[in-house]
Amino acid sequence: MKYRHTQAGWLMRLLSLTLVVPGLLILLLGTLNIGTGITAGTLLLVGVLLALMSSLTITVKDEVLRWHFGPGLFKKQLPLDQVTAAEATTHSALSGLGVRVGPQGTAYVVAGGASVHIDRTKGSSIILSTDDADGLIAALRQAPVLQGVGGEAVNPSNAERPQAVRSPKRGHR
Asked: What digits encode the pLDDT tens for the residues 17-42?
């Protein structure tokens, strides 16, 4: 099965604009000196980085899970034969956006809300923010390499499990 989904991080796009516009205004309208140059450069640099990381694209193809920010930053991949479990969870935007390393694993986040927590055979877990958690889990479940894994290893979201970030095992603060 082929799966491709891009989630836009609107908060990151808004933050990017609030940094880039003042940076450009300082450069164009201000008197340039070392202080204003450093300020404008910093605003522009951080604003552009936020803009480049304002979307997360996830694909499942050829028995490989791939994900990247924006036009291709931080490209990562995971062979599906290394996936041992995947389940829907949530992630709060207040705990940070971008690449977050924590006790539950490495999270790639562009917006708060739905995420998929992926356990793997080698290394720490991966948390991917997506507004299509059930679609990603269905794509993982349909992959030929995971056909024999069954429903217990790759679980869609369910009503019994509270969708909160406070879960000690799956919550990501």
From this structure: 889 998 888 888 877 788 888 888 89
Global pTM reads: 0.74
| DSSP summary character for residue 33 | -
Helix, strand or coil for residue 155? strand
Residue 87 is inside which H or E element, if any? strand 83-91
CA–CA separation, 115 and 136 (whole Å): 10
Query: Using an 8 Å Cβ cutoff, are 27 and 47 in contact?
Result: no
CA distances from 81 to 62, 108, 121, 136, 143 (A): 11, 21, 8, 16, 10
Contact yes or no for 140/146 (Cβ under 8 A): yes
* Residues contacting residue 121 through CB under 8 Å, at least 6 positions apart: 82, 84
99's torsion region: left (phi>0), alpha (psi -120 to 50) or beta?
Answer: beta
